[in-house]
Amino acid sequence: ERVSALQSITLDVHPGEFLIFLGPSGCGKSTLLKIMAGLEAPSSGEIRYPDAIGHGKLTSMVFQDYALFPWRTVLGNIVFGPEVRGVSRGEREEKAQRLIDLVNLRGTEHRYPHELSGGMRQRVALARALANDPQILLFDEPLAALDAMTRRVLQDELLRIWGETGKTFVYVTHSLQEAVLLGSRI
How far apart are the first and last CA of the chain? Predict the structure, then answer.
């Protein structure tokens, strides 16, 4: 049986904006994000992007469940994408160190995911997504599993990182409060 998760959607995402997809569970927000990331194919219609700029990826995704490799350290998780793309070790580790500073994880480079708090794991996931220098970062409820205090701190961190990087952020949430706090457009 086919389920129509999305229908008749037209959307323009503007460079540098913090766009929020807000809605209840099951309304298709995550499905749309996965289609945008190329992780799922639409049964009809199309996604169009402007030409990619530079050598980075067009999109990178930050998931709710961190999706970190447990056998890799913080540094190892962050350099994974550039490593696969053949970026030299020195270049990828230098960039990873800058990203570790950006997400406030200095001193954790050689720790493994099981040694980190949930908030720290999500910071690693964000740094890993940024390591590929994407034009657009896609977030699938990345703070939903965190306690209220950690979630609030990371919301502020996301706003700071968005401002510092100038990247386009597309963010899925079912929290009206989070949408209003983070989004430049909902």
Answer: 32
